[in-house]
Amino acid sequence: MLTRRQFGLAAGASTLTSLTPTLSSPALAQGARGTIVMAQQAQPPTLDAQVTTAQAARNINLHVYETLFARDEASNPVPDLAEGVDMSGDGLTYRFSLREARFHNGKAMTSADVKASLERYGRVGGSAFIMQPVEAIDTPDARTVVVRLKSPSPGFIAGISSPRAPCAIMTEEEAGKEANRPEMIGTGPFRFVEYRPDSHVKLTRFADYKANMAYQGLDGFAGRKVANVEDLMIRFVPEGGARTAGLQAGEIQILEAIAVPAAQRLRGDRSLVMHEMMPWAFQTLMLNHVMPPMDNPVFRRAMQAALDLEEIMAISTDGLYRMTHGWQHPGTTYFAGDVGKPLYNMNNKDRARALLREANYRNEEIILLGDSSFKNHNDTIVTASEQLRSVGINVRVVITDWPTAFSQRTQRTGWHMWALMLGIEPYEGPYGVVGFFSGHAPVQHARDEVIEDCQRRLTTSLAEADRKRAVSDFQARIYDQAIAIKCGDVGIVQATRAQVRDYKPYRIPRMWGVSLA
Question: Which of 301, 321, 359, 363 could lock onto 313 through a cystine, CB 3.0 to 4.6 A?
Fold first, then answer.
């Protein structure tokens, strides 16, 4: 029987442990029938899986594409298209053995496809920084890929296993194309059929899918993936009431998210099942450091002091939240304790006004960017705007749809503050969170050398204690310089019709293993 391998790092050396596959609920027998309709709030900005970090795209792409390593139920990296990995003692060489897989165009996957996909990710990937340490990729045979690094990168497997902007394996031919140009040809259990903007994406069961027989059932984004429905329709329904009405009427079988008040109201309906998850994401306010006066840290500290974060969380989440200052989840390896906590949720209007005077603020207009697709984002921006006005900041609120807002924040002008639920990054650990604020395209648009150093230490040190210190220093810098503002932790409720069998909530609504009664 195949085994999966898990590597550990200690005292600068690597260890390798063979484990039997995680056992989960058994995969259901093949015999697909019916169509499942899932509704999500937004349409994807692109269907190029490697490029986008948008949840609206992940929901679709992770049914079509697979990765060398994926995350299990507990968010640990585990093999997916790889059978396993052997890592050299110096942490510089990773030797991946590949399992049998077939692309949706009928082509058998080989090491050439994997090499081309990894190289493309280094050029256009949404988390391209994970490929920066790579010196060369070799393909000694069709089932083996050898990645050689210039320097140790303890987060390399975590990076290529992340679903944030998945390091999707595509055909060598498609991997040669520029961003947003490839056809959607993956190895996943569902294949792409059509995309109708403002309406839906349609996927259908891939009859020749090669399931990973090393697993006996679900295991995060890995495991044995068995498509038990013939078609999957992912509809874009921005209005929450329309999504809920569609679920009640039976026109929709699964909701990516249901409003908390609606979930509470419908808990007694036996035709529906509610699935609550906490935590789901950080609610954050991202700041554009190149737009004056946001380039002044004293002005940013004034905003930080002015905000009543609990009011923002209570309104924007309808009560499903917790107040936590950490930029990693409590109880996880990299949680930094009380670092920065005194600067969290100060709600000190007098301090804010004093800092505005110190910053020599002259009533410049501050643009707050929200979006109508996510109530949470919209409510966060609107509530924050009123609080900032109360201390004398001249605020203008701009509300657009999600794709427009997502695109706008990549621009260096036109906005000062942007609301974002940061979900996948804290789920995957520290690399995505710190990486969000560092590298060639930090979200704040201005590189911070202290955070760059934290990122360097996090991604190069083989000692866990050094990596923990880097995350602690990162959190201290976030608060001291008001790089961005974390409001709190958000929960989420997913919903299904009772006829949906074997559904298990996760970071995306997974359609493999699910059937209709």
Answer: 321
Best CA proximity match to 319, nearest among 307, 330, 328, 311:
311
CA–CA separation, 215 and 224 (whole Å): 5
DSSP per residue, 11-30: TTEEEEEEEPPPP-SBPPPS
4-237+499-516 folds as D-Maltodextrin-Binding Protein; domain 2 (3.40.190)
* Residue corresponding to tokens 């100060």: 346
Domain boundaries, the chain: 4-237+499-516, 279-491
Residue type for position 477: R
Cβ(508)–Cβ(213) below 8 Å: no
The answer to whether the Cα torsion of 462, 162, 329, 432 is positive or negative is positive
Q: Which amino acid is at 480?
A: D
Each of the 517 residues of the chain gets a pLDDT tens digit; together they read 222 233 222 222 222 222 233 434 445 444 568 999 999 999 999 999 999 989 899 999 999 999 999 998 878 899 999 999 999 989 999 999 999 999 999 999 999 999 999 999 999 999 898 899 999 999 999 999 999 999 899 989 999 999 989 999 999 999 999 999 999 999 999 999 999 999 999 999 999 999 999 999 999 999 999 999 999 999 999 999 999 999 999 999 999 999 899 999 999 999 999 999 888 899 999 999 999 999 999 999 999 999 999 999 999 999 999 999 999 998 888 999 999 999 999 999 999 999 999 999 999 999 999 988 788 899 999 999 999 999 999 999 999 987 888 888 889 999 999 999 998 889 888 988 998 999 888 999 999 999 999 999 998 888 889 999 999 999 999 999 999 999 999 999 999 999 999 999 988 899 999 999 9
Q: Which residues contact 264 (CB under 8 A, 6 or more apart)?
A: none
The string over 285-297, giving b where at least 16 C-beta atoms fall within 10 Å of a residue's C-beta and e elsewhere, is bbbbbebebbebb
DSSP-assigned letters across all residues of 190-240: EEEEEEETTTEEEEEE-TT----TT-SBEETTEE-----SSEEEEEE---H
Architecture of the structural domain at 279-491: Roll (3.10)
Report yes or no: 396 and 367 within 8 Å, Cβ to Cβ: yes
Q: How far apart are CA 457 and CA 434, in angstroms?
A: 11
Amino acid at position 372, single letter: S
